[in-house]
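note to self — DONT lose this again. spent like an hour looking for the file last time. sequence + predicted structure for the chain T wanted, 142 res
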Amino acid sequence: MSHVDPSRDQFEAFKDLPRDTPIEMLNLVAFRDLANYPGDHALARDGLTGAQAYALYGKHSGPVLEKVGGSILWRGGFETTLIGPAEEAWDAMFIARYPDAGAFLAMVTDPDYKRAVVHRQAAVRTSRLIRCAPTDRGATFG
């Protein structure tokens, strides 16, 4: 099953959470081999890979992330899954930090972001986007 965009219920649940506290969004992304743009999009016949389309998404959405006060807190490269479904492998993994949920909502409704998201939709085979509340619970497990 592919997960590219949130369902209506997922987005409503996100909006029901507090909007005035900092949030961190864990992003796990698997690319398509070839980007799948809508047939009428200018890049539909260019044969871009999913990775190339996702790079365009980053290029065009990055300024919007910065404008709302967001940043990339952490980025890593997938090696293996120790616990979890063995078939899940990720091409991009990162944590984006936002000053609050309102900033995230401002980003996804920004006209420049809405133009950029077509590259993400074309690039992504499946993904996970998990909202996290930052905590300071020390340096040990639990």
